[in-house]
Amino acid sequence: MTFDAIVIGGGAAGLFCAAEAGRRGKRVLVIERNAQVGRKIIVSGGGRCNFTNRSVNAENFVSENPHFAKSALARYTSQDFVELVRKHQIAYYEKKLGQLFCRESSKQIVEMLIAECRDAKVRIVTGCSVERVERGTSFSVKTDQGTIESERLVVATGGLSFAKIGATDFGYQIARQFGLKIIETRPSLVPLVLSGESFRDLAGVSVDAIVSTDGKDVRENILFTHRGMSGPAILQISNYWDKSRPVLIDLLGGVEASGLLSENRNTSKRLDNFLAGYIPAKVADRLFGKSAQRLSDMSDAGIAAAARRLNHWELRFKDTEGYDKAEVTLGGVSTDELSSKTFESKKVPGLFFIGEVLDVTGWLGGYNFQWAWSSGYAAAQDI
Ligand SMILES: Cc1cc2nc3c(=O)[nH]c(=O)nc-3n(C[C@H](O)[C@H](O)[C@H](O)COP(=O)(O)OP(=O)(O)OC[C@H]3O[C@@H](n4cnc5c(N)ncnc54)[C@H](O)[C@@H]3O)c2cc1C
Questions:
Q1: Cα separation of 30 and 305, whole Å?
Q2: For ligand 1, is residue 40 a contact (CB within 6 Å)?
Q3: Quick one: DSSP state of residue 202?
Q4: Using CA positions, which residue lies closest to atom 45 of ligand 1?
Q5: Contact (CB, 8 A) for 275 and 284
Q6: Disulfide engineering: 321 pairs with which of 69, 278, 325, 334, CB 3.0-4.6 Å?
Q7: Which residues on adjacent β-strands are paired with residue 345?
């Protein structure tokens, strides 16, 4: 059998693109190295897949070219995907901040994509790894089970995180082979490892905070871990963090500490006990307990120092917890190399890249899956 297009990778982007192209009458083959398609979808969102966000725009993504995502996000929106989820009668709910999750199981999203592929007569081969690609008059795709030819090749091999469920660097290898630029990759949406003082004794404690670095700020929970910090605010800020920059934490989530402490100067409570009304007692004790005085006894300088630590706690992180704990990969195939409309390579006609393999990384909150759907849809219109 011959195919109009071969899609390498049966993850979110690959399956969605294949179903869309199949619906448009193309004969499409998806090749997936895992025994099962969509494994990352299954583990996502704690097993409930945060499949999109109610409000998605290009500002929710990190890329060398912040405009690249606009066209694809406008052509296939989060509302379009929600309609598909509804059509398949998958119950969902908004957890917070527009984040839409399956009510029952992320497996339903995989089943939905497989059903869409089936209806569109897409052929899916699992347990088959693509090892090499050559280009003559068409693409020759060498797998561990033989060679298949196709005029169009869609690379949907994802990023590097969670290698244990199938992630490979194969997409970057293909890009390099054809002379396409790659923006340096690194783990993101990932816990950070502290340098210097450890807060191991606070592991498991979370605080609602505002976390900022490099002019970006996120208001969400931080979670102390054995080696550093995690929680949604830290995962989100990791998209913007680099080793050279400190991370600032506002433990009072925007309440101005110097005003709060000054107004309560006449209280006889010790600082740590007073703060336990605003932040978890364990955190108040650990950060302010050692030399805590009654507020009424504190000097102006003491109040100012405590206020600084509450609103501008400056931390240095030495590293991330790496690809094993990262939800996504920052960087990837440069968007300069592709048409933002079709996702086809400008240098190599017939070669497409979609999904996380590209240098487009979403925030925490369903944006990365929306990128898989939107980029997959855009490419499918052209293949
Ligand atoms: C634990 C975890 C939780 C997450 N939760 C969310 C969430 O709730 N919401 C959200 O928006 N995002 C979430 N993400 C991110 C999201 O899963 C990814 O951004 C998304 O899956 C990317 O889709 P993709 O199709 O580009 O890549 P993937 O889904 O990773 O698919 C790539 C596929 O290519 C296959 N492959 C690779 N190399 C080859 C080869 N040589 N031959 C054949 N097949 C190959 C892989 O096995 C894989 O199945 C999460 C990620 C992780 C790790």
A1: 59
A2: yes
A3: G
A4: 9
A5: yes
A6: 325
A7: 338
Alpha carbon 125 to its chain's center: 27
Phi, psi of 166 (to 5 degrees): 115, -10
One digit per residue, the tens of pLDDT, for the chain of length 383 reads 789 999 999 999 999 999 999 999 999 999 999 999 999 999 999 999 999 999 999 999 999 999 999 999 999 999 999 999 999 999 999 999 999 999 999 999 999 999 999 999 999 999 999 999 999 999 999 999 999 999 999 999 999 999 889 899 999 999 999 999 999 999 999 999 999 888 999 999 999 999 999 999 999 999 999 999 999 999 999 999 999 999 999 999 999 999 999 999 888 899 999 999 999 999 999 999 887 789 999 999 999 999 999 999 999 999 999 999 999 999 999 999 999 999 999 999 999 999 999 999 999 999 999 999 999 999 999 98
Q: Are 76 and 18 within one domain?
A: yes
Which range marks the domain in which residue 172 is found? 3-187+325-380
Same-domain status, 252 and 312:
yes
Q: How far is the CA of 252 from the centre of ligand 1 (A)?
A: 36
Say if residue 103 is in the same domain as residue 164: yes
Q: Name the DSSP class of 50.
A: E
Burial label, 339 (beta-carbon count in 10 A; 0-12, 13-18, 19+) = middle
Pairing of strands 130-135, 139-143: antiparallel
CA gap 201, 212 in Å, rounded: 24
Q: What is the CATH number of the domain that holds 351?
A: 3.50.50.60
Binding site membership of 5 for ligand 1 (Cβ less than 6 Å): no
Residues 174 and 358 sit within 8 Å (Cβ to Cβ): no
Residue 261 CA: distances (Å) to CA of 274, 285, 289, 305, 314: 9, 16, 16, 11, 20
Question: Residue 271 sits in a domain of what CATH number?
Answer: 2.40.30.10
Cα of 228 from ligand 1 centre, angstroms: 26
Task: List phi, psi (to 5°) of 16.
Answer: -65, -45
| Whether the Cβ atoms of residue 274 and residue 264 lie closer than 8 Å to each other | yes
